[in-house]
Amino acid sequence: ANVYPPINLFTDADGFVVRAEVPGVKPDQLAVQIESGQLTLSGERPSPSGESVSLHRRERRFGRFSRTVQLPPDADPEQVRAECRN
Known about the structure:
With 86 residues, the protein is mainly β. It contains no helices and 5 strands. The mean pLDDT is 85.
């Protein structure tokens, strides 16, 4: 499917985990929201630009994105935390 960002959803000892791959996106370009039992990850991935850039193939998506997933009914929005790793 043509969905971005790709994510993995699983449960471990810490609870329900969502891992998203957003290469090239800085932490300050990401927003994580929880509302009505849904988690939304949104942001913008900048396109390479400048006079020195000459794209020969463009397979990675650029621009604004948003991905929403339904959380399990027992997910506590007060316990949500987010972290960004390189």
